[in-house]
Each structure stands twice: as structure tokens, then as C-alpha cells.
Amino acid sequence: MKIHLASVFVDDQDKALRFYTDVLGFVKKTEVPLGDHRWLTVVSPEDPDGTELVLEPDSHPAVKPYREALAEDGIPATSFAVDDVRAEFDRLRGLGVRFTQEPLEMGPVITAVLDDTCGNLIQIAQYK
Q1: 44: burial class by Cβ within 10 Å (0-12, 13-18, 19+)?
Q2: Could you give the angle at the alpha carbon of 73 between the alpha carbons of 71 and 76, nearest 5°?
Q3: Which of 75, 71, 80, 76 is nearest to 26 (CA)?
Q4: Residue 92's closest CA among 73, 114, 66, 76?
Q5: Where are the strands (E) in the chain, listed by range?
Q6: Cβ atoms 82, 88 nearer than 8 A
Q7: pLDDT of 87-104, one tens digit each?
């Protein structure tokens, strides 16, 4: 068994697609129209057949309060692995990305937390 899909709820699929591709560097894998929304996924260019991230519309009434509570408490919605958190922090900050946590060593990992502009905090992490 392996993880095939993971979701992140977004307030605007177009804005999310731009952020996750143009800024974070993922690539679009799937786009299927579904009424007012789309089945929209991105993947790592390093693993195009790997786990897909669904840019899931936040239209269900339970989603917004859940996301707001996580963000208010500083809890990331998900975490992405990077080779070098400090280098990625510098690259993304140079692109105007807002971080809520600068690189921080926590035991065997270094993490930073960014705002994805779509209602989520996202952690980037590196194992030392």
C-alpha cells in the first residue's frame, strides 16, 4: 500500500495552481472539469508518477472553520520535503512568499512554515 493522493483545501483553484506551480515548482498533472470546480492535481517534477496533491475546493461548510483554526494556531495543513530548508526559504522569500516560521532546527529536522496565499500554512522540512 502507498499514498496515491493527498489534498489541500484552497479558496481559489486558479490562484492555487499558479502558486503551487509558478512559486513552489510543482507541475500540473490532472485537470478535469467538475461543474463549478475541477479535479486538479499537481506533482513534484522530481517524481511525476508519485503522490498527487489535490487542490481541493474549500466549498464544504466544515472546511473554512477547520482551516482558520489551524492557521490561527500556526498548524500547517501539510508538509513538503526539501533537500535544503534554508536555501528553499531564501528562494521563496525572494519570490515574495510570506513565512510564519523561519527555518528552525527541531531534533532531526529543520522546518519552516509558509502561507500558500490560498488559506493554508504549509511546512517545508529537511531531515538533517
Answers
A1: middle
A2: 50
A3: 80
A4: 114
A5: 5-10, 27-34, 37-43, 52-57, 78-81, 99-106, 109-115, 121-127
A6: yes
A7: 999 999 999 999 999 999
**Cell output for 14:** 486558479
- Cα–Cα distance for residue pair 37/22, rounded to 1 Å: 21
CA atoms of 114 and 124, how far apart (whole Å)? 8
Confidence (pTM) = 0.94
Grouping H, G, I as helix, E, B as strand and the rest as coil, residue 87 is: helix
- C-beta separation of 80 from 124 below 8 A: yes
Compute the half-sphere exposure of residue 82: CA atoms within 13 Å on the CB side of its CA: 23
10-62 confidence digits (pLDDT tens): 999 999 999 999 999 999 999 999 999 999 999 999 999 999 999 999 999 99
* Closest C-alpha among 95, 120, 96 to residue 16: 120
CA distances from 43 to 80, 102, 118 (A): 11, 25, 18
